[in-house]
Amino acid sequence: QVQLVESGGGLVQAGDSLSLSCTASGRTGSTVTMGWFRQAPGKEREFVGFVKWSGGGADYADSVKGRFTISRDNAKITVYLQMSSLKPEDTAIYYCAAGYYSTTYYNRREAGYTYWGQGTQVTVSS
């Protein structure tokens, strides 16, 4: 069992920056990938990005590439989502997730993750 807790959400203005944290606990030793997803009101949950615990790299959705950066702290079992140049369309509940697949196909999809946090709200005003 893995528990994930997100924090750092809030209200910001367009163009601002914000950093989210996701701290994991429990049986985390077998986790391969930590992903970030988001869900806007009335929308399906969508992929934001992921990072490999091994340090093999990270990947992002086209909509956030160049603006968002995912980093990790293996000692603290924590991942971060650093967001810059925020836009109103970034408004959503942001979720972190722990997965056990090593392929990019599953790393970019909800089905590739087993455990999810409760989410943290990010609201970007125009």
Radius of gyration: 13 Å
Q: Approximately how much helix is present in the residues?
A: under 10%
Largest sheet: 7 strands, mixed
- What percentage of the residues does DSSP assign to strands (E)? over 45%
Q: What's the tally of helices? A: 1
List SSEs in N-to-C order. EEEEEEEEEHEE
Unreliable parts: none
The overall pLDDT average reads 95
Please tally the β strands and state the result: 11
Architecture overview:
The protein is mostly beta strands and 126 residues long. Helix content is 3%, strand content 52%. It contains one helix and eleven strands. The protein has one helix at residues 104-107, and strands at 2-7, 10-13, 18-26, 33-39, 46-52, 58-60, 68-73, 78-83, 92-99, 113-116, 120-125. Strand 7 and strand 8 form a beta hairpin. The mean pLDDT is 95.
Structure keywords:
126 residues; mainly beta; 4-stranded antiparallel beta sheet
Compact description:
With 126 residues, this protein is mostly beta strands. The chain has one helix and eleven strands, in the order E-E-E-E-E-E-E-E-E-H-E-E. Helices cover 3% and strands 52% of the residues.
Question: Layout of helices and strands, plus pairs?
Answer:
Elements lengths: L1 E6 L2 E4 L4 E9 L6 E7 L6 E7 L5 E3 L7 E6 L4 E6 L8 E8 L4 H4 L5 E4 L3 E6 L1
Parallel strand pairs: 2-11
Antiparallel strand pairs: 1-3, 3-8, 4-5, 4-9, 5-6, 7-8, 9-10, 9-11
